[in-house]
Amino acid sequence: MKKFKGAITAIVTPFLEDGELDLESLENLVEFQIKNGIFGLVPCGSTGEAATLSDEEKDLVIKTVVKKVRKRVPVIAGAGSNDTVKAVKLSQIAEEAGADALLHVTPFYNKPTPKGLVAHFKAIAEACDLPIILYNVPGRTGQNVSAETTLKVAKEVPSVIGVKEASGNITQIMDICKGASKSFCVLSGDDAMTFPLMALGGDGIISVVSNEIPKEMSALTVAALAGDWKKARKLHYEWLDLMNINFVETNPQPVKTALAMMGRIKEVFRLPLVEMEEKNKEKLREVLTSHKLV
User: Fold this and answer.
1) What is the Cα–Cα distance from 148 to 51, expressed in whole angstroms?
2) Which residues are catalytic?
């Protein structure tokens, strides 16, 4: 039975006006997510601005989420790095903080070969006991991980039990779904691809938009998992405009701005991320207003 499926939120990291962690807002977001039926939470991912969190802050964020969750849903901690030694350290921090699994982006900038990727994930697997989800996001890493390589890593590193696929390549997604073992989780890394990915045999989504609408994204994935494609398709198109507007500027700028408009967090980012352009902020507000979210 697959451990990770449905709608899993890549949760934002709220900050106070002085740039410090806003743990109270984070706890409130976690409770909002769980009360609205979310399947799991991913702290310290790219949506959580992990690139500008210190190791100590990542530890505190993961511990805060784990404590608030109280085992009600899985916590999949972002622990990725393009430095294998650091990826191992972050994995151990997440394991000690109580995470249930790890999300590891494929190494960016240095762009390892398939052999290097296998060695990278083997080193992580040997250093901790948590299951690992590989995160393929070519738009951020500068390198696509092919279906063949994903399946090779999964075969040679049993701890890699799933993939978050954000390539946007339908053919690649089909090849992974077709070639993977029945226990291997195939999760979308792009909200707008959730419905098509699940129609092809995928298991769910690690989602940005579920920060705003956890109930609705959970309902979409529940319908898809049950084979109710009519309902899933309806929800897909109903919320597609919000899924898309969340990427009108660099994620997580729009989703954090939306959550601030909804009164859930403060509109604070860490450089080099900044406030949205006013014209895009107005477009975002229009979409939120049309859905009665503000």
Assistant:
1) 28
2) 135, 164
| CA nearest to 16, candidates 255, 260, 211, 267 | 267
User: Taking the complete model, does pTM exceed 0.85, yes or no?
Assistant: yes
Q: Looking at the chain, list the stretches that DSSP marks H as alpha helix, in order from N- to C-terminal side.
A: 23-35, 55-69, 84-97, 114-127, 138-141, 147-156, 170-179, 194-199, 214-225, 229-245, 253-261, 278-290
Are the CB atoms for 131 and 159 separated by under 8 Å? yes
**160-165: strand order across its sheet:** 40-42, 6-10, 204-207, 185-188, 160-165, 132-136, 101-105, 76-78
Q: How far from each other are the two terminal CA atoms of the chain, in whole angstroms?
A: 39
d(CA 45, CA 148): 25
* Axis crossing angle, helix 278-290 with helix 253-261, rounded to the nearest 10: 60
What does the pLDDT look like over 69-89, one tens digit per residue?
999 999 999 999 999 999 999
Instruction: Determine the average pLDDT of the residues in 130-147.
Output: 96
Q: List CB contacts of 122: < 8 A, sequence separation 6 or more.
A: 156, 157
Instruction: Identify the residue whose tokens are 């901790």.
Output: 128
Q: Which amino acid is present at 135?
A: Y
- Provide the token pair at 205: 């989504």
What's the CA gap between 174 and 236, in Å, rounded?
Answer: 20
Supply the pLDDT for residue 41.
98
Domains, the chain, ordered by start: 6-226 (3.20.20.70)
Residues 6+ apart with CB under 8 A from 69: 30, 34, 41, 75
Q: Which amino acid is at 105?
A: V
Residue 103 β-bridge partners: 78, 133
Q: What is the pLDDT of residues 187-246, one digit of tens each?
A: 999 999 999 999 999 999 999 999 999 999 999 999 999 999 999 999 999 999 999 999
* 3-state percent breakdown (helix, strand, coil) of the chain, nearest 5: 50, 15, 35
